[in-house]
Amino acid sequence: MRAKGFGAARVSVPVIGQGTWRIDTFDRSRAIQALRAGIDAGMTHIDTAEMYGDAEVMVAEAIADCREEIFLVSKVVPSNATRRGVVRACEASLRRLGTDRLDCYLLHWRGSHPLAETIAGFEDLRQAGKILSWGVSNFDVPDLEEALAIAGPDRIACNQVYYSPSVRAIEHAVLPWCTAHGVALVGYSPFGSGDFPEPASSGGRVLQGIAEAHGVSPHSVVLAFLLRLPNVFTIPKTARADRAVENAAAADIQLNSAEIALIESEFPRGPKPRILPML
Predict the structure, then answer these.
(1) In this predicted model, what pLDDT tens digit does every residue of 214-264 receive, in sequence order?
(2) Within 13 Å of residue 209, how many CA atoms lie on the same side as its CB?
(3) In the list 102, 122, 151, 217, which could disulfide-bond 134, CB 3.0-4.6 Å?
(4) Which helix (H) or strand (E) holds 71?
(5) Residue 151: Cβ within 10 Å count
(6) Are strands 232-235 and 156-162 parallel, antiparallel or unpaired?
(7) Half-sphere exposure of 45 (CA within 13 A, CB side)
(8) Closest of 42, 34, 41 to residue 58, by C-alpha
(9) pTM of the model
(10) Secondary structure class of 168 (helix, strand, coil)
């Protein structure tokens, strides 16, 4: 699995990881097997969150005998993001995950508590060794600028955002900002939210044609497309072991310039939105 530097975390992380949103709605045994298959295939970056139901507990089972190999990420909900609340939420996540530290801890989205309090809580956790780095999620450029002004440079490890071929809003300003400031951009829901292009649609036919040329699936082509940019990581979710292996293999696909242009034409970036899309 190809890996690269993960912002202020200062470690190399696989470009394709594993998301866990709603994984607890699937058969538990098969979902854990899928996580294990992904780990075996090199997807050792695992992302979860306190609001994901039983996902943290399921992740704990999947990584119980290989924790040292895992780049483990969880997230605090905004309602818990006071200075003390961040610490309490993180400690609860650590108990559910069966570990003594997180490799990265994120604010799930911007809430009503002052960002300075949240960051102070993150720094308390980092100094205590309970997290090794911290980042944000669903932050637009003004939020990122505020976080940078509070924390200073080389503190924000990543910004996790919605990024799929059909939702390319972050390419306007968020991705360039992250690239300029050394912040990793982690794209969640790379296959969309239940709206992956149908095979008979124009977009579906384009993806299928490129997939056939590379001997892979359209889903693998989508991951390769998102990873065409140097600062991007992606965290697809699956509860199927075979699909996890397929996702991991996408890291080796090199799309040529004509294929990238064709996908960009079929799934245009569109105008800059007033509000950053999020799920």
Answers:
(1) 999 999 999 999 999 999 999 999 999 999 999 999 999 999 999 999 999
(2) 13
(3) 122
(4) strand 71-76
(5) 18
(6) unpaired
(7) 26
(8) 34
(9) 0.96
(10) coil
